[in-house]
Specification:
3 strands; alpha+beta; 3-stranded antiparallel beta sheet; 4 helices
Length: about 120
Amino acid sequence: MKEAAAIGGEDPAGWRTVNREVYYEALADRWVVRFEIVKYDGERVTLNERPTTLLSLANAVLDTLIQTLPNMLAELVDADHVAEFKDYAERLLALTAGENTDAPSELAPLPAPVPA
């Protein structure tokens, strides 16, 4: 019942939150990002990937939006979400360029993790 109330009109197959964990695999000598998507219907999709691979996935999502909906994006995508995405992209570019990252991030955090 609580879950039904939490959905509040959302698509039950839609994503609800993201759980993230980053760790170093010493034997494989690589960093891994465990990225779990929790959907409203309770299904969980987990990816254990290298950071570059997750960035490739993000590129594929963007490419899909750009290639399939180019004339409708302005109507379909909330401008505030686009501005937030731009902020994250600029932060990523600064970090990969080695710019000073000592300042705390002012970007909004993702929703709180959902317990396993």
